[in-house]
Amino acid sequence: MSQINTPLSPESIVTDPTQRTPEALARVVVVGLGYVGLPLAILARSRGFEVTGTDIDTARRELIRNATVPDIDRATKRRLKEQPFTVAEDYEGIRQADIIIVCVPTPVDRSHEPDLMPLRFACTNVASGLRKGQLVIIESTVNPGTCDEVVIPTLERTSGLIAGQDFGVAHCPERVNPGDKHWPLQKIPRVVGADSLWALERATSFYRSILDAPVREMASLREAEAVKVVENSFRDINIAFVNEIAMSFSRLNIDVEHVLDAAATKPFGFMRHAPGCGVGGHCIPVDPYYLIRYARANGFAHRLLSLAREVNESMPLFAVDELERMLARTGSSLSDSTVAVLGLSYKSDVADLRESPSFEIVRELTERGSRVRTFDPHALDRSSVRSFSAALTGATAVIIATAHRYFRSLSPEAFKKYGIAAILDGRNCLDKRAFLAAGIAYRGIGR
Ligand code: SAJ
Fold it and tell me: What is the pTM of this model?
């Protein structure tokens, strides 16, 4: 096995797994047991590693210990019950670990500035127990340069050890897709970069032993960090593209969904995305800002990434404007209306409200004088009313903000019986023709 201080260079990376001596690494500590760390801890435990997990959320630690945590699917919950891992109060297990994996949030603040406080806090605590020969892996999504310029200095300063010599640092950006049954964690290919060949080999060996998917070795930490922000910026730009097309077509009496469906018949060179009333979640609206800010600090302005963010952030307002235009055609207005906003989650059929555009829609409606009710069957605790009927009784208009299955299945009659005069389908998820045929004023996003 190469020494830890072997300098990393592309030609020195061993790409043929048969040439690598995979070393079973027994003890893993996962720092942060959210939507990334918890599935990872459960998977590593199921593949024979001794796993300790820690999280700052006391209630969450209890839910995990009792295997009653709500945001994992049944199969994963069963695995957690059958093969529990140690859930620690704090960072007590760090010293005994072979690998420490940091899976903490990397959000942005209200001015879209990256907030690395959770990552710095985690690294400082990891460093307090760090010892020679250990490997620290960062899974949190970060901009290129973060491991070199933030993680490693933090680990070295607090531990007094030297990265690349005393301990290793690797980056394997998370690729969890909550709620996606086609892509469970173990099937998702990953990329790994590291600060030394030693760290790269150990990190790659670890992921190859828990995943049933390819693990690509990158030539540096920086390249591995860049992969994730590129993946998600790509998605944000494509969503912004169809959103801009939708806004344009709403003026041209063209149904954008028909056009996108037709464009998707092209078997190459086109990837269909869906226009909507906004882009939420903890990844897509956040990750581009990590690259935009870091590139700007290094002398480059990402105009396209920034414009895509601007377009997508304008969609909640566009949705409210469209509803206002519909009401004006019937001589009504938002200030005369009670509007039911259906859907608070940022994504269909999950209960995840982070960065959800629904809240921007509610704010805008309220500012324009509407009385607003909110109902989300996946987030009743955050809904202002607890049933569809309560949301629509006395309402004059509806905005569909999340394409939950519950809403997609609703017929025009389900709305007519409450006397709903106008529906703004923010996710183009209802049957437009059926609603128009039923005499309900219906608009979507771009149709
Ligand atoms: N959205 C659109 N139009 C689209 C796709 C999404 O408006 O065509 C909106 C959604 O309504 C939501 C937001 O964008 O508000 C994000 O949706 P998402 O499907 O991208 O869901 P996320 O945030 O869970 O993204 C994750 C990401 N996975 C990781 O970061 C590991 C992303 O890279 C994946 O591409 C995405 O899942 C996926 O494909 O499902």
Answer: 0.92
